[in-house]
Amino acid sequence: xxxxxxxxxxxxxxxxxxxxxxFLSLYLxxxxxxxxxEFLRDKVSPLxxxxxxxxxxxxxxxxxxxxxxLLAILATFSKLNVNNEIVAMRSAGIxxxxxxxxxxxxxxxxxxxxxWVNENIxxxxxxxxxxxxxxxIEGKTSIAKKERINNVAYFGRKNRLYFINSFEPxxxxxxxxxxxxxxxxxxxxxxxxxxxxxxxxxxxxxxxxQVFSYDENGSxxxxxxxxxxxxxxxxxxxxxxxxxxxxxxxxKQLRDYLxxxxxxxxxxxxxxxxxxxxxxFAYPFSSLVxxxxxxxxxxxxxxxxxxxxxxxxxxxLIGFLYYxxxxxxxxxxxxxxFPPMISGWxxxxxxxFIGLFLLKKTT
Length: 363
What we know:
The protein folds into 2 domains: 3-134 and 277-362, no CATH class; 144-249 and 256-264, no CATH class. The protein contains 13 helices and 6 strands. Strand 2 and strand 3 form a beta hairpin. The protein is elongated. Helix 3 (46-82) packs parallel to helix 11 (286-298), helix 3 (46-82) crosses helix 12 (307-334) and helix 9 (251-261) packs antiparallel against helix 10. By secondary structure, it is α+β, with helices and mostly antiparallel strands.
């Protein structure tokens, strides 16, 4: 590695880790202060608070690393530009790609590391932080505080798959219910449709029920029932935590889960899972993509005065626009307006194209 490469890379790496520490600290401080009244009211011990936020650190790292590397790029190259060092380097015959190749390689390594953390650490970290929050911080959480959950998909006991259009925790009711029960050979044994279900006296009571039963030859018999107490071992809490269970899965587990749902006909749930899988692949590489956006903007900063504030301001603006674009594209994918792959990768591809275009114009 050339001295020049080491000089640039040292600045990028130093600022990256410094920004990462600052972002992690700010995140923790703001969150702790925001929940301080709850901690004091519920008399949560400092050890429990430490355990909760320690388990949360990998999640914060994944969320803040792209912004940290963007700030490192902006601060490093804007400083070189303001000091006319880039002009001197280019006069010596060094093009912009030679100047930035080590930085791009570093961003790629960070992206791969984020992908690895997402797959191997984040699911367990989320499970641990949720467990600590529910069991040690919140205690017995009031169900009334929970919001309606739409498009519930749950793989339950007795080899059953549940699909629920909406679940209302406030009155423990659900609407648009489909239950698929399979035999030991994973063949469809029974299909149950119900308009509405409610939790009464520790039992599920369904209304507007239509039951389809299938024998070994695949012959179908059907029955309509106005109202019935169902033999369902799952409780409301099982359905309320189903969304969390998906967050606990890595890509392989999500794909296995998707395979189980493939023949269910629950198109919205399957579509959401496909979008989630594409997003799991795409998001880690935001750290790499964002480098190509940050570089041309860093070369536009000409004045030494206010350089730090300019870098920080541009960083916040680009980060906000990226996360906004990503959120909109994910929402479009889950609503069916975008195919899952386009939805998951739209922000990365858009910002990569914009970054390369601006970089070409700037240089």
